[in-house]
Specification:
Largest sheet: 5 strands, parallel
Helix content: 25-40%
Strand content: 5-15%
Strand order of the largest sheet: 6-5-7-8-9
Radius of gyration: 20 Å
CATH architecture of the largest domain: 3-Layer(aba) Sandwich
Number of strands: 9
Number of domains: 2
Number of helices: 13
CATH class of the largest domain: Alpha Beta
Distance between the termini: 39 Å
Amino acid sequence: MIKKLLRLFQQRSAFSQPIVLINTKSFGLAAQHKGTWANVLGKTEFVLPGFYYWLFFRRVKANELVWVKLTSRYKVGKKSNLDYFVRYALPYINQPFRLITTDGDSSVPGELPQALVSSLLNNPYLVTWYTQNCSDVLVSKKFRAIPIGFDFHTNRCGKIGLELVSLLNQIKNGASDAKPRQEQVFCDALLNKTSTTRAELFESIAANPLYKVPTERLNQLQLWQQYTQYDYVLSLEGNGIDCHRTWEALYVGCTVVVLSSELDHLYKGLNVFILTDRKALQSEDLASRLHHFRKDFANHEYQNQFFSTDYHLE
């Protein structure tokens, strides 16, 4: 219990000031209705008892933001926070409101029970549903896909929250003073060979000079520094359909290479090169196409705005 409390207070200190850059916790902290700070900053799989939703979430005023922790429980067919919000709070809300679901790997709406999704989308007071891991934005005009963004809540190199933001910005700002980047695709995503897909990808590109796969695991600081040394970074799906690597690499100036997925719509206007499938990684003209894509990318102002939490909630 003491260890748990110490962790929570450490998290609260680390997020004591607003973090502008997109991240799961900042979306939660931006909402008027989120339970308690311990709910937002606590572990991803934490589920609030139904009573708390009745207590903290039912008195919503017009156009206020309501944040519900997504969790990853829907991936394995378990109930989670949205179920309790719909049961214990939604019937009492009689003002227009906006819903945010972040912090977890469940796909929305794809892995949620259809009845749960319908209860929310058919509610006349729900104006907008902002969610990460949005698997089908076309299901309803109420959906707004938001990126998973950066992971500032996990202890990385002994730092969390504001300290990690400061470290990332130092690396980003130092990138312009570094030597020219190598025109290769950096592939730290392929270090995890416990995944069959990633092991197969590694075998298919291991001998291709376009790709640079590190020989050993790197800590987060080392990874961010490595990103600034390459023009391109390959980013694959994480535990959910989105991945922190995508946004970290974009932020420090890389062109991110991804495989086509349900998130293609989210990358529109960004320095993200979308491949149709895994076979395209072996395309003979890929190096040339990447070069021209990076050279021609000019949407820097929009991309800089895209990294702001507030931008996605406007």
